[in-house]
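Translate sequence into structure tokens.
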Amino acid sequence: MKRVILLIPLIALVISCFSDLDPDPMKPVIFPAGQHRPIGLQVPQLYPKPVKIEVSLQFDAESIYQLPMAYQPNWNKITGLSFGNVHENSARLVWRWLNNRIEIGRYTYVNGTREYGVIDTITLGEVKRYRIGIDRLHRMYEYSVWDQETRGYQTRYRQLFFHKGNLGILCNPYFGGSQPAPKRVQFHMRDLLVR
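Result follows.
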């Protein structure tokens, strides 16, 4: 009985040491200087049902970069889905450093026509959650931002699409635009969920 009593404080100490560890920590996404290609392997998969891609993002001082002024507004890709050629039919979540802030955007191609725009801004060090919904039934791309107060996603933009393909490619992070990373650039990502 004395051994059990002596073990209880030891077990409590071990549990307290590990209780602060995040079971799914933010992972850095690093673009080395000069990189201008997707990170990792992109494998085609069937997506016959509605799909939701959810991701948490955090940016820091390593996310700040400078390009020639004509290229600074270009978007860097985070994730999304492409149905066939990425420049034909795709929906992607993107980011950029512009006007001394991080902007999060939508970036779509529908039948070869590109549309993009800002859906949110995020301050350095802040963690925010985003979602791209691809509703096959209603043929709709939907970009949403998690709202901490309402504990739910708030839709920021919807766009119709017309392609009929179910074979999609999950798009990996990519620096650019048309320019490679001017220096080592990074952001942090967690919880890439595809449902």
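Note: The longest helix spans residues 2-18.
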